[in-house]
Amino acid sequence: MPLAQPGPGEVLIRVEAIGLNRAEALFRAGAYYYPPTLPGSRLGYEAAGVVESVGENVTAFAPGDAVMSAANFDFGVHGVYAEHIVLPEESVVRGPDGADAVTSAAMWLAYTTAYGGMVETGGLAPGDHVVITGASSGVGTAAVQTALRLGAIPIATTRGEAKRPGLLELGAAHVITTDTEDLVKEVRRVTGGAGARMVFDAVGGPGFAALGDALAPGGTAILYGWLDRRPAELSMNWPLTVHTYANGTLTRDPEFRRRAAAFIGSGLTSGALDPVIAETFDSLERIGDAHRLMESNTHTGKIVVRVGEGR
Where are any strands of DSSP class E within 55-192? Predict the structure, then answer.
């Protein structure tokens, strides 16, 4: 395709690395929450690269700046699976100081989802037990680290035993294997019978009710994904607070982007936040292999694809 030039308020970015997200596989399969509009739809929320040029009235970025996409757009308008992308200024954020392109491509969406969902929306506090489902995913591993940084106590869930050692090494206080263990009983056991203060769920469906059953009275359940496409069911363990969380909506707010960037940047500098990268593919031509790995569900953390030489 011909290389577009940035118009007023737009930024041209040379992409160096792409971070994959489950949303892209769902969108490709026609199972995302909005349908493709062909032939215009593209793929990819998350990329890191370098600004090559800017359009009129752009004040926050200049050529040579290391940046990331803010993942606050729809695939019908933008996508980052490319060597070069043009994004509006409000869809670009600065890369963390000192981070290479692969690290940067693995950071923004996972950690803003964890921070925005658990902290800004749910009010996670030190000492709170939080149940994190799908804990081996990019967002799941980011949520474990985010909880630890706040002084909260992460309880990770995974379907089988294979991923338990890695989640414990990551810092999960407890790991529940839902194929063989009763989630509610285990949460009650590890919390001394009190129940968790929060659940952070990527799955939804009928199993969402059991997560509510594992909450302490007045606890908070946050649903940020719908890997189970069936209707979500609510627990009768009242009172409880339920939030549905849309990261793309929150990241359209420049003040949220500022706070999230500060949280991520300082966490990366201190070492409290360190993205778990399952595998890095060496070229954009490997994007199909990267998607096959993502759909296999055998990995832990983020899948990243390099584009060009990178940093």
Answer: 66-69, 84-88, 92-94, 129-132, 153-158, 174-177
